[in-house]
Input
Amino acid sequence: MNFLRGVMGGQATGSQPSGAETIHKLCDRVASSTLLDDRRDAVRALKSLSKKYRVEVGNQAMDHLIHVLKTDRSDSEIIGYALDTLYNIVSSDLEEEEQADSEEENTTKHSDDVGSQFAEIFMKDQENVTLLLSILEEFDFHARWPGVKLLTALLKHQGSQVQQIILVSPMGVSRLMDLLADSREVIRNDGLLLLQQLAKGNAAIQKIVAFENAFERLLDIITEEGNSDGGIVVEDCLLLLNNLLKNNNSNQNFFKEGSYIQRMKPWFEVGDDNSGWSAQKVTNLHLMLQLVRVLVSPVNPPGATSSCQKTMFQCGLLQQLCTILMATGVPADILTETINTVSEVIRGSQTNQDYFASVSAPSNPPRPAIVVLLMSMVNERQPFVLRCAVLYCFQCFLYKNQKGQGEIVATLLPSTIDANSISAGQLLCGGLFSQDSLSNWCAAVALAHALLENSTQKEQLLRVQLATSLGNPPVSLLQQCTNILSQGDKIDRRGSKVQTRVGLLMLLCTWLSNCPIAVMHFLHNQANVPFLTAQISENLSEDEHLVQGLCALLLGICIYFNDNSLENYTKEKLKQLIEKRIGKENFIEKLGYISKHELYSKAGQKPQPSFSTPEQMLFDHEFTKLVKELEVLIIKSIHKSSEDEKKEEEVKKTLEQHDSIVTQYKELIREQDTQINELNQQVMSLTSQNEHLQSSVMQQQLQIQQHKDQYNLLKVQLGKDSHHHNSHNETVQVNGIQSEEVCSLREQVEDLKKQTEILKGQLEERDYVIESLHSGQLAVMPREQTASDGITEDQTSHLRKELESLQSQLQSQSAQISKLQNEKRELRHKLEKATAATSSASGDSGGTANSSDSEVKILGLKKDVDRLKEDVKALTESKASMEQQLASANSTIAILQTDKSKLQTELSESKKEQDDLLVLLADQDQKILALKSRLKELGEPVDDEDEMESGDQDDDVDDSHGDDDEEDEQS
Output
């Protein structure tokens, strides 16, 4: 400290300057020095004095230090000294040292108060936090590490203010997340502490941190550090994960969807080595189990919890936890927390509950895990927290698990008892009647959970018989419970007596509620009702008030769920008994003792039993729900008279009948709605199909017209070319015709014959389509039938209109068929002329054998044409018969809809066939013209007059076609 010696050297010997004076000089040096080295030395001196003279440095130097952070950003060393000095001022880590100094200097301010005050001063200007965030972007170690420590200290004192500033700062959280990726472990580890403070209690920052890939980085760090065998860094990562996930459903869902639950399984791979359980490993594993419980907590949304439970089973995490549960050498606190974790993983999940029921302990012979746990619960030498955890596990196993409830109750029935093995039912009965009051209470509550919302098991439990002593007949479980209640005064310890009786009364209340048969069995014992009335009517101490309230609740259950099967204990007689022996007001007052008890509300907060001492175990969470439900019903039932109850029963019966009628009508309406929706969908689909078909028909008509126009142009052009060619080749002779050319002509004639056969086949296919149209029967359903089928008149009229539209479409199709017939006749006439011309040309060539063969083939073609004419005639006749069948058709609406779709399909097929026919005929005409031109080239004379007449006829045919098309379009 040469600089300090220089400052103090000017003083006289024996009169050293005070700390405040020295700090004042150093502050002046920081503010006035122009050399960076001088300012750096002064800030270094302030840092060394900031621990001992914390208040003085904070009061005098804070503004100068902040100014240094703003102006000297280029020098990382002076920035580091300034940040360290501010950290010493704000931090409360030096609390013990400050307290010792405060005793010497008679300073009254506490370290935490001082740090909080200086943090508040620093936070008055929000730009200071923004400045600090910008410094954290520097990679230099001397600036980044002290900046992280200073920001962490500010978060401890002024957490909400710093969080809001960082939240609105651009990329504020992202800058801090970069600390986790720093290669220097000290910065990374302090960054974890910073993020812990930053995410505490702020859901918005928690979401941002989570979506900045925090889960991936934290899990990577945990894996690198050795999972549960890691050091305190693993603990810091787990604490941060708990902060991010606890009470944050969005982050929990993101954690599950990111497949991070699967990466938790290696955490719980622990061996049986007792020496491997260090204190840090116990802490780490404890936090890991808490993290699992955060994801499956009962306070989470049910859907999110069940999804996490399913994932934990599928990835093997539940199996790994059960392995720890049954392992040897596990510390007691880890075993307890593991039991609690397994409890919430299986709670309400049928798949997980079934798996847990199949888990066995590694003993000889193997025993079910449930039996092993229940042995610990009823053993008074086991730790109290462990027994509470086992009870919670058993409750979670039976929660909404009727299958498991049945299995537990079945172990108590005489037909399933195995004398060679210990069952869960035997352990519960043993604990229910043992000398330990805590075992009595736990066994009673566990057995009550086997009966919750399960009337079948309540009736089955009435069959359980217990052997009391040799020579005495067995008694039922229900009777034995009431016997213990009536003999409760024989128990020595007063507190134990209350706990045992409370447990048995809770079991009986749960057993008898919503079960008239159990109520009848209870009332059948003549001593039960006098015992209850005596307990309620007595004036006992405050310790016995809870027992009186439970007795009143049990008696009220016997009234409310009474089916009046016993004449001596009907509802009315029990009410009269209460009014005479107890009094209605007194009864209701005693009933209110339950909900007014100080431990009642605590038990109703969460399902897990959380008691600091065994004496506080008086209420069960599910029982508090039952009390809330029954208390109001019992009070109303007590105030009602017999006439009111009769009227209420009549009203209930009337309402039940009304409800049944309403239910029937609702079902009928649902069926009709379903039918109407189906019909509407069919109508919509048919309408869309109709529109599509109409558009396709229009497109096809346009294409046909275009093809006709093109065909006419080609005919005109071919006619001109052939006329010009014939005028210049009149003198060409056919004497030089080669045999090869004659063969080619024969092949072309064969091709024409094949094409004619193809046309004949297509005509036959079209005849088959028309015959199928003949077989379709169309009719309109009568109104009576449509009304009986649940179809409205509007729908019927709509369907009739659709039928009429179909008929009109069929008529238009018939017109088109007739038009095609005319076209076919004209084309045949044209073909006959062409064949005649060909035959005359072949006669002029000398009458060779080849031409005679051609004539024979052409005559065959003529015969085929005659047959085609007969087919057209049959088609015309079938058309007339089809029209007659259409007029007399009669069918149902369903057949109408089916035929409509068939007709539309066939219409489109017919259109396609017509197009094919036109194309084939056009090809045939082109081939005939090509054949004529070929004959002319070979010297064969062709009659020009016949050709011109055929051309004129073709033009007339085309004109007639055009007129027909126009008429079709108008129709």
